[in-house]
Specification:
single chain; Aspartate Aminotransferase, domain 2; alpha/beta; 2 domains; 14 strands; eight-stranded mixed β-sheet; Aspartate Aminotransferase, domain 1; Aminotransferase; EC 2.6.1.-
Length: about 400
């Protein structure tokens, strides 16, 4: 039997890759599964983006290989977006590298900067891919806790007291997934100062900044960040283009060139039609995001009702596509509880343990589902809980 590489020994198949196959197996015409687990926007991109894709795809000249750095119009649209959205100036010629979704950027950045055995600071709870990629490049994982008693903020004082001499990258993600925490400028400044002092790279993964968030911010707007920071961003969440795989990394010229060395050896430039579409999507004005966030706010209200009947507690001050909530105290095994709900109601909710040990007592509900479906989920779960309560009472009397 051919043995696999040692580098994947500590890397598991992505949870949703495995779990969603199980969830799909429960789907029947009589009772469809309601998936409240995935943050895949269910609404369409703007019509101008779709029209641009169609027009470009019809041009026979637009189907060849493209420049690894993307077309100038796309990079300029990103730079304009940063100026308008974050009041941050970045050079479209030297400080932007388009990516086929920002997720690939996590791998490219790790390969460009991390040597085997060097340490990577990983948020706990946090996006599982940060840990998986660190394992793949042979790094040593250093989880840092986002603490509930700090409103899911980073304990920067504790970091300052720790040995950071072997740290090469610190992953941050604000607005944070899964907790919905938005960092203040002061917090980001402290983190940038820490990175400068200890000479490690700080990377902000920033796809949620325009979703239910009144104060979008880029780490590149922080004084001193230019020498030690990169930022990943994408059109997946804010522009309803998750399946289009359109993202970028932005930062100092020398840092971008290092990422390009990896990217250019692993893939080619993205389809020209997608770049034309992305260029148009980035021109969406304030009314686009106002309309989008109105929909998400309506969904969030129903998601919170569902959490209420589950007996969960949560903060009303959360940004992004999810609602993060703490399971009731009497639930001893949250993963088992979520599976009981799944099999009893065909409603799938994400258990928090997949985001790290700090998420073990929590669950996450996605807002990428219609109000009608969320209300249906609420009805199913309410009936299930009432039936379970009657069953428990009957057992107790027996």
């Amino acid at each position: 039997m051919i043995k696999t590489a040692n580098r994947i020994a500590n890397v598991e198949e992505y949870y949703f890759s495995r779990k969603l196959a199980e969830v799909r197996g429960l789907d029947t015409p009589e009772l469809r599964v309601i998936n409240l687990g995935i943050g895949s926007p269910d609404q369409a991109p703007s019509s101008n983006a779709i029209d641009a894709l169609i027009a470009s795809a019809k041009n026979p000249a637009n189907h060849g290989y493209q420049n690894y750095k993307g077309i100038p119009a796309f990079r300029k649209a990103i730079a304009d977006f940063y100026q308008t959205t974050y009041q941050t100036t970045i050079d479209p010629e030297t400080m932007i590298l388009p990516l086929m979704g920002s997720k690939e950027g996590i791998m490219h950045i790790a390969m460009a900067f991390v040597n085997e055995g060097e340490e990577v600071l990983i948020p706990n709870p946090g996006y599982p891919t940060y840990s998986s990629v660190a394992n793949l490049v042979g790094a040593k994982l250093r989880p840092y806790d986002l603490k509930e008693d700090l409103n899911w903020g980073i304990d920067i004082a504790a970091l300052k007291k720790s040995d950071l001499s072997k740290v090469k990258i610190m992953w941050v993600n604000f607005p944070h997934m899964p907790t919905g925490r938005v960092a203040s400028r002061a917090e980001l400044k402290e983190l940038v100062d820490l990175a400068r002092e200890h000479q490690f790279l700080i990377v902000n993964d920033n796809p949620y900044s325009l979703v239910l968030n009144d104060n979008p911010m880029s780490i590149l707007s922080i004084e001193g960040a230019e020498d030690v920071a990169l930022e990943l961003n994408s059109l997946s969440k804010s522009h309803n283009m998750a399946g289009w795989r359109l993202g970028w990394v932005a930062g100092k010229k020398e840092l971008i060139e290092a990422v390009l060395k990896v990217k250019s050896n692993m893939d080619s430039g993205m389809f020209l039609g997608l770049q034309h579409a992305a260029t148009e999507a980035l021109k969406n004005g304030k009314e686009w995001f106002t309309s989008l966030n109105k929909v998400y706010a309506e969904r969030k209200a129903v998601a919170q009702q569902l959490l209420d009947i589950l007996g969960c507690t949560y903060s009303n001050d959360q940004s992004g596509l999810f609602v993060w909530a703490k399971a009731p105290a009497h639930i001893t095994d949250v993963e088992k509880w979520i599976d009981e709900i799944l099999y009893g109601t065909k409603v799938f909710i994400t258990p928090g343990f997949i985001f790290g040990e700090a998420g073990r007592r929590y669950i996450r509900i996605s807002l990428c589902c219609t109000v009608e479906s969320l209300n249906q989920a609420l009805t199913r779960v309410d009936a299930f809980l009432k039936k379970s309560a009657v069953s428990d009472l009957s057992t107790a009397k027996a």
